[in-house]
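[job 4471] stage=fold_predict status=RUNNING
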Amino acid sequence: MTAVMEKPEQTEPVEKPAAPARTPRKVSRSMVVAAILVGWLLLFALLRGRQTLALAAADLTDLHRWFNDVNDSIGANRNSNPLFLYFFNEIRLVIDSVVTFVQELISQPSAGRPLPQIGWLGVVGIAGYVSWAVGNWRVALLAVAGFTFLGLQGLWQESMDTLALTVSAVCVALLFAIPLGVWAGLSDRFNRIVTPFLDFMQTMPTFVYLAPLTLFFLIGPASATIATLIYAAPPTIRITAHAIRSVPRTTVEAAESLGATRRQSLTKVLLPMSRRTLVMGVNQTIMAALAMVTIAALIDAPGLGKTVIQALQSLDVGTAFNAGLAIVVMAIVLDRVTTAASGREEAARRSKNRFLAWRRPLLGAGAVVTAVLVYLSHTYVWAAEFPGEGDTGSAVARGADSVTTWAQDNLSGLTNAFRDALTNGLLNPFQTLLTDSPWWLVGAVLVALGTVLGGRRAGLTTVVCVGLLVGTGLWSDSMTTMASTLVATVLVMLLGIAFGVWMGRSALVDRLLRPTLDAAQVMPPFVYLVPFLALFGATRFTAIVAAVVYAAPVAIKIVADGIRNVPATTVEAATSAGCNTWQIITKVQLPMARGALTLATNQGLIYVLSMVVVGGLVGAGALGYDVVAGFSQGQLYGKGLAAGLAIVLLGVMFDRITQAAARRAGA
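[job 4471] inference complete, writing structure tokens
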């Protein structure tokens, strides 16, 4: 038997599985930003001091001279040009009539009278009654005490001038702001059109409104009121539109199904259901108007702002503190009254107070008492002219001067060391980097950073802003202001993250700190300069520290809300995985709240920029000084107007980059 040998089958060689293709490693934005900054530093070392576009304080460019010529031409043809005769002059006349009427009512002598129509007793009575009617007895007591304190400070007339301008501006602003807000709430198309203008108007620092308006409306209360109402209108427009859009659509549809017309739906459904939010809009408008009225003293607006400016310019800390305290008191009273008005109806509905049934008769009796007080203040000098010599104000000023002297004698070593460390260690090197680099290098870096952080649109906006900044002829001053703004913003974010995380993680800390932060946001920017002027003197560092304190509250609250909105389940999962508190904050909460952090940076930048510019009054220099000098020296008017334009460009550039970055972070 022959064995048959089977030929072994030939098997195909087994191929080894191919290794997965390597995906290129994605370069993070932070690495790109770091590369841009390193390249900037290397080129700075090579090109330092070249093509910096420096301009001496007294020098003017062709643009500045052209602005001066336009100003002179307008002044020469103001009473012959039809555009001024029948438009700008008429607007100024109407606004001036409104302001004069309110001033003669409560602050200035009227025709044939040595005193206003309503004296101090009547004003206090009206303030108390209105506060009680729209709020409660506690708010009324605060209003009476606050207005009385203004008189005890010896600043009654100045306070009433400020109140008159504020009331005039707010009333005129609401006449067109609320209808525009309703229109924006009802029409998507109009809302898309008006939103960029509102963003632009709220980005502009208060200083910027003044110079162009004086060009058309001259210096005085009318221009101040027009600037104030333009600045104060956007919050009402925006909040009114939001309130209208927030009403449930089903409610509107139910009214329409019952036969309600468009007008009836608006007046019977939308506006009544939006009442509380609308009052909040009025509150924001009043606060913005009060802040603007004080700064408008630069264009000869009467009131407390003028007292503060004169005191700051003469370094009279006591007088500045007394007037600043009066502004704070007025701001707190107006804020509490309008805030109470927004919540009174809901509070009354929840309350079981048995005296609510007597509210209407008591209000009637209060109206009679108020009418009697108004009559007395109109008739008798003792009820019209605030009694006393303002001894309380003198005591406050002396106390502020004493504290200033003590601080300068005992704390100067500490404050000067802090100032010098921050100035020499951070501010000066960064300012040198910006001002001594070639302008095209800084512009290229800004465009690159804008594109990386905010995208192509932000980069394109930065290109336009950089080009226009060069065109203003104030590139060097703009870089100096940018240095102060960015350094202050870094400090703001350090405070914002530290306190915001603390508040976001602790409900108790939030309850303790939030009222203080809310009160800090009520105070106008001017007020922040006074205490730091006492500590640090008239230097740019004073403006930076004041800007940090002014901008920190809004950044802290935004960061706190972002931390609080991180899902609790995520934090619990990290805790169960063994993470400690530091790891939870740095690895979980802050990364998940990066959208809030970027938004806080955006708001901090805008607040800081507006305050750094105001710091031109206390030695901050750069663009702020250029604006102030433009008001006080006629030959520098064009330069001041260009400086205002440069401030706007910086604000727009910062705002667009940080807003785009915030949208990217939140995506």
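[job 4471] summary: Residues 1-9 have pLDDT under 50 and may be disordered.
[job 4471] exit 0
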